[in-house]
Design a protein that fits this description.
Number of domains: 1
Radius of gyration: 19 Å
Helix content: over 70%
Order of helices and strands: HHHHHHHHH
Mean pLDDT: 80
Low-confidence stretches: 97-104, 189-211
Number of helices: 9
Distance between the termini: 45 Å
Largest sheet: none
């Protein structure tokens, strides 16, 4: 069962994760800005239910991690922290370049069911499942019964995703404007060069470790 400290920590992690300029938050904001207020409810419910579904898929192996020894579970937790950091770097390195669209009628769906399905499927991707597969083990305890804990975390994640998705929808113009600003900054030549150099440095580091 979640205590107050665990509740606050997980809520903070969800708040950071769901507020990032990810493809999902951008899609929710885009539907609101381009298709109007009628898309708010199907967009945020589709995104939130998709997130909880992805979390459920990640919860199954997480329960298995709980039966590892304390030392092996610690290795899994550190690996998860590394993946979460890489995910955040990926989001900020290419926030809108790969997904930003012009402010016109170029979204794939118009009906409420189509908007819901689109946001649901976008949330239920291997990348989001991997994020929860990295996040959830941070809160489990080796050898303990964590089913109740994960169920409570799912309920909290659903609530947080609804609130943050609603925020992206209500403040859609600001959300899209921020994504465009980040996209424009990324297009600057010196920044492209710095990303290229950083990528080469990371590749060289992996090769050194592998050797």
């Amino acid at each position: 069962m979640m205590n107050a400290e665990l509740w606050i920590t997980f809520a903070a992690a969800c708040a950071i994760l769901f507020s990032l300029p990810s493809p999902l938050s951008h899609r929710v904001a885009s539907y609101r800005a381009i298709r109007g207020k009628k898309t708010i409810i199907p967009a945020i419910t589709g995104a939130s239910i998709g997130i909880v579904t992805a979390m459920t898929a990640a919860a199954v192996p997480t329960l298995g991690f709980a039966y590892l020894s304390a030392s092996l579970l610690e290795i899994v937790q550190w690996a998860g922290i590394g993946w979460l950091l890489l995910f955040m770097l990926w989001v900020f390195a290419s926030p809108a370049v790969r997904l930003a669209k012009a402010d016109n009628d170029n979204l794939p769906f118009k009906t409420a069911s189509g908007v819901f399905t689109d946001c649901y499927c976008l949330a239920l991707t291997p990348r989001f499942i991997a994020v929860f597969l990295a996040l959830l083990p941070q809160f489990v305890t080796a050898g303990a019964d964590n089913i109740t804990l994960l169920a409570e975390m799912q309920a909290l994640a659903l609530l947080m995703s609804l609130v943050l998705a609603l925020g992206h929808a209500v403040f859609a113009e600001k959300s899209l404007s921020l994504a465009r600003q980040m996209s424009n900054q990324k297009r600057k030549p010196y920044q492209r060069r710095s990303y290229f150099i950083s990528g080469r440095a990371v590749t060289a580091g992996y090769r050194r470790i592998a050797a």
